[in-house]
Amino acid sequence: MEKTSSSNSFLLETLDALGEDDLKRFKHMLKRILPKEGYQAIPWSRLEKGDRVDVTDLLISHYGEHYGMQVTVQVLTDISQRQLAKRLTEAISADLSRQKQNSDTPKAPELGEEVDFNPEQESETRGHPEPEERDISQERRRATQGVLEKLNLEQYRSRQLRLRDLQEISAESRETWAPMTLGDLPWHFLRKLMALNGTARNTRLVHGATDDQETNEEQEVHIDYNNLSLSNMDGRNSLHPLDVLCAVLLCSDSFLQQEILSKMSMCQFALPLLLPALNTPKCTLMLWAMRDIVRKWRPHSLAESRGFREESLVLTSMPTISFVRMGSCRFSKSKLLNDILSPSQQHHDFFIHRDMESGNIPREIADGLIEISWYFPAGKASSDLFPEPVAVTNLRGDIESHWLQFSFLTEVSSAVFIVTESINERQYALLSSLQGLATKYYFIFNCKIEKPEETLGFLYKLESVLKLDKPSVLMRENTLNHAQFVEKLQFTIASPMESSLKRTSIADMAVTARELGIRVDEDCEECRSASKWVAGITAEIKDVAKYKREMLRLLGDQCTKLAKVEKELCRMQRQGDAAIGLQASQQREEWLDLYTQQDKCELTDGMVKFITGLKKLSQVETHYFLKWMKYHLEYIAQGNLSSLQADYKEKCHTRGDDPQHRAKLHEPISSSPLGVEHFMRGLGQFYEAECAMVKEGKKLKTQRQLIPLPGIAADLMLEGFPLELIDGDVSNIPLQWVTDVLTELHAKLGGRSRMLVLTVLGVQSTGKSTLLNTMFGLQFAVSSGQCTRGAFMSVIKVAENFRQDLGCDFILVIDTEGLKASELAKLDSYQRDNELATLVIGLSDITIVNMAMENATDMKSVLQIMLDTLLKMKKIRQHPNCQFVHQKVSDVSAHEQNTGDRYQLLEPLDEITIAASCTEKGLRKMKFPGIIYNDAEKHNWYIPDLWHGVPPMAPVNMGYSESVFELKKYLFEFMRRYSSNKPIRDIPQFSEWVRSLWNAIKHSNSTLSLRNSFVAHTYNQLFTKYSQWEWDFRKEMHLWVSEQETLIQNQPQAELDHVALRRLKHEIRQKLQQEERRLLDCLQEYIESGAANVLLTGKYKEDFIRSTNGLRKELRRYWFRKCEEALDSQSSTERLSHQIQAMNMKTMKGKEDGLLQHCRKRNLSSERDTFQKGIRIFCEECLRPALVDYVNRMLGIKIVDNFRRSAQGIGYGNRSFFQFWLLSRLLEEMNFDGYVKYINNYEEFAKTWIWTHLLDHYKKTRGLEDLETELLSTVIKKSRDALEKSKTQTDFLGSFFKYLQKDLIISRDSLARIQLINTINTNQFPTAVQGFLPALEQAILSQFKDLDVESKLSILPLKPQEEIFKHVFGCGKCCPFCKVPCEAEGTDHKIHFASVHRPQGLVKPKRVFLPCLAQVPKLDYSPCYSGWLIKDSHVHINYRHCFCDDNNVLRCHSPADSSYKTSNYWKFVFKEFNQQFAREYGTKPADLPGDWGNITQEQALKSLEEAFKGAISVPGQNWLQVVQKKPKVFP
Description:
Blueprint: H1 2-16, H2 20-30, H3 44-49, H4 52-78, H5 82-102, H6 133-150, H7 163-167, H8 185-194, H9 230-236, H10 241-250, H11 254-266, E1 271-275, E2 284-285, E3 294-297, E4 309-312, E5 320-326, H12 333-341, E6 370-375, E7 390-398, H13 403-412, E8 415-420, H14 425-432, E9 440-445, H15 452-466, E10 473-475, H16 482-499, H17 506-515, E11 519-520, H18 525-538, H19 544-550, H20 557-575, H21 578-600, H22 605-616, H23 619-655, H24 659-670, H25 676-695, H26 709-718, E12 723-726, H27 735-748, E13 755-762, H28 768-776, E14 791-797, H29 803-806, E15 810-816, H30 828-843, E16 846-852, H31 856-875, E17 881-887, H32 894-897, H33 899-919, E18 940-943, H34 958-979, H35 987-1003, H36 1006-1049, H37 1058-1089, H38 1097-1129, H39 1132-1160, H40 1164-1205, H41 1215-1229, H42 1232-1240, H43 1242-1259, H44 1263-1286, H45 1292-1299, H46 1308-1317, H47 1325-1345, H48 1349-1355, H49 1360-1369, E19 1428-1430, E20 1449-1451, H50 1464-1472, H51 1474-1481, H52 1497-1507, H53 1509-1512, H54 1519-1524
Parallel strand pairs: 2-11, 5-7, 5-8, 8-9, 9-10, 13-15, 13-16, 16-17, 17-18
Antiparallel strand pairs: 1-2, 1-6, 3-4, 6-7, 12-14, 14-15, 19-20
């Protein structure tokens, strides 16, 4: 009793020293104790409610005094109460010594009591029931050491593997090799994984000698066939994949571990959640290693709205379902899990299992590993296995041997599935200790239970302990096939997901792990220190937009304005005019003032902390610091973005579909991203301002504070962090910052910095960053749904032993933002795209043009954007290589099948290259291959889709990985040959080239002019097509309505009433709608086809649709009026007279019938005369007028059609063509009167021009006679056919009239006379008329020849000159300032524009008589827009091209952009006719700038060609030759 009393006293005193929270932790830890054999676990129901006395009694009653105190010491140690544990240990030792001294005879120990207990030894009281922890730890260390030795990884225990070790390019990087020795396995796994290859986990060695084998061909080999087995053959020479994984993770630093798990996640491999204790006393939770992983999915709750969720994997709470094994099991638990998680049509091996390659090899160190995988729904109820995300964990090994891991799973899981074949007494005791936990337990038994009676008995006892019910016990019955069993399990798993409220994230699991004494990888000192630094920065961020305005203030409007001023300043300096020089001086002052303001801005608290962190933290801590910044900022930005998107949707829904309103609402979303790049961008901008102040003498060098920053950034580049080259917000390069960082990089590389530059270009969201990351193991941003903005560069070292072969020391890889970005879809985005393309192509040795096959139009756009850059590179003898990567093409025959497509893709580029090269000085005419180094067969790559199946559960496509690797191999081989044929730049040379190229871009307006050229080219090309479709529309309606008019005039009055008019109008509407649909179908088909250099055609679609609608309305009004006039012409009086006359003739005919019959026999000669007379009347009075009328009605249409299709009609292709033609001819003739008429009365001038041109054209050719002959021949053929068909009709004339009633207008009076005369030989009449037709045709043609061309054109109902004028005249609006006519297509467009405006003084002034005027004013030579700006400036950025009414303009300063100056064309015209214009307008001549006098006529023409470049650069058309063929209009 004394002993019991002392034990109780010791325990009670110890527990009394615990606080309430510590006591709860003590009880919580105590329930997890796995008692030794012979002891029962304390029921949680009693332990949970017990006080200190109760807990003491429970310890003694269940474990005995000695073992109870041993357990207490262990639990105190686990909850970090080491002082109490030490005191209790000392008390036990003193008590044992005292008992030994007081007793000579030892007592029999109690059950489980150890007399020789040594309190200093910590035994495994809750983990391993058999050996002590120390023994197991030593055994595991020996096993780990053995595995590392086999894999040749011992050297990486102290110097861990880093990501840059894998990125380094060596000879092996271009080889496809398989592991031949165990030492190859880690590198095989890592290289395959970095390439996203699904075979990375395969550890099978290829045939060859292994590490411990030596082959001797001469040695006699004896095979024991009796003992031969496949498992022995596989297992001896390799390792289990999970052993390799554990060893690699053990030898990798934290950041490589992140990359490994990120790539494994993309491949849909199960990830290591809890690493077994390999070189640490406890297991390790891989929380940090998973921080990089972001997953996207659509829960069923968002299926209808088509929303989705995108979150960091470690922060996403979801149900966790765990699968463990107890004892042995004949079926594979991991294989079963794969079946559960795989959709029926998309099986995938998430977990390695025994039936996989290398999966049957015994594990050496991976037992105790907990793996985790996930299921994410796609929002499709028909195919999703579960409606919400669920995590599934898998414990490797028996739970009896890994009780700590099992205890961890019971704490974090919603449900635990225990796979077993039996339950024995010891296992029952272990499971009984789980009593009281909220976790749901399930048992999965094989169809044949071992010891069924014993197992069922213990299972019955566990019902109340674990709260089991009937569905909690699952049996693999023989009656169920495997698929049915899997379906049953899926249904069972869904049950706790729906019922359990328990949701756990991996971050939550870390809390539980720490409570259990499990190590968390984030708990290292460097990681915790960096996290605290970051928390001090990000804790201040509440509102992202506000934070960016206040803390990153240099990145706002100031930075945008500075970039704009720099470009304007550079382009003004290029112009050189005196007035421009003054503006340039003002711009420079503004530039300096902006930098001064930036330099005076004190570093904000957030920037100070950021810079201090970069300066003071160690290299490893800095790496952690930037990673933590990334995670915190992504989390904040994602939450901010979600609220902004919800607000955007709500406001868009309530306020309608106005595009401008939508764009304004979307602005906060566009500016919402916040990442590390913004802090680095701000840092660089502060550095730029400081350097500018030093350079301008505003600050001393000794006052500089930011000098160390480029060195820090260079270190980060060496560690794999990309450096921003182009600011993604303002599309500008901070030149000083980038140059200084590269200089520091050069120094850190010891001056050995020869480099090859590889860049990628492509449309947005085509997988450019993913391609580079997969190819080279880089870390360009691809997560969080954010597309790359700007351009980033990353360096890859070349191994020492491979530098000579490859010809360089490292490769610089540049990733760029997507071209044609939807969020930048406005006019200035084309300038941005061109600047980006110019820079990256100009910098690169190799450019990868990345294209997705579903974006065929975008593909051509990318190539066209590249064109101007390539032409400029050609001029400076740069010849970059382009590799075309066609993504999402999986067919094995893709390369062969797409041969035609490759050439078809380049055909339009040939055309536009020819046109563009002709406008570039110093270049000969050439096709696309002449400016680019590209082999159509070798430099086109077809890569399958990234995903194999439907995300989010789709793994990476093996074909994608293999195709990217083939591209990588070829690139290395190409680099080797490339570097041997040309000098390779080093960093100083590259830096200078960046500076030179960017300055050239800033000084040049070429990218903008290219944009204007391409837009104008595309617009005019589409307009030319549209004009043909429009004429076809008009022509078809002319022909159709002409038939209706003819039909009306041939109808009796009785049939022409209001009903007939309504019917006719209805038919006109239907015909118009039909033709409108046909035209719009042609437009849509043309746009979708991407034909003939189509760029931006979709942008103008709305304008053309509106024009088509306006055309339909115009024609409807016109033809309604025409039909009404045709009906009115048939007056009732006239028709009544005709009817009376016809009736009289019919009566007379009846009376004379008898007389004629009586006389016929006596007067045959008279009958013949009468017959011939009837034929002559029919031909001369009926047929001839009708035929002439037909030719005249059709001739106008024929002339327009013929003229438009002729070489002479090219100038009328569209309005811009027409304007260029007129202006060039005016310049050639230099006729002052012509200029006055053109400027002041453009409509009359244009009509005169067209009329004169038509007359001239048809006077010089037989074209008009040919058209008349063709028309007459056509209608005579119709007449002959009608006569032939009428032969068999009793009423010949009626039948003939019916056949031709839509073609010929035949006089009914004449027909009546013929009917009266021709009462005999009616059957011979058609044949006789046919005989007269040739003579009639010649007579009519002779009649046409007697008229001159002018007379002929004047009498035509449809005037061809008017139709042509309608086409080129357009809306008729002119600029209110200089009277230049609008060139926009159609008559109903939103924006008027012209290619070139002119000085205001060329327009005739309004006659205002002011008696008080002291002197006559001078002509004003200022540009028309110099004093005007449109109020609604958002309508069109190029306001100089927009027309408006006078009340929509206001007075303002002249624009700063010097490219808006008056063209040389109008300068030349003004200086040539300055005196004449002054006399004409009653003013004094203008005092023109002196340099205007130096402009030549040739320069004026060049200026005109430049302004109309887009209109005249149509392949196959020589505009100068066309112009020279035109008649001289002005004598």
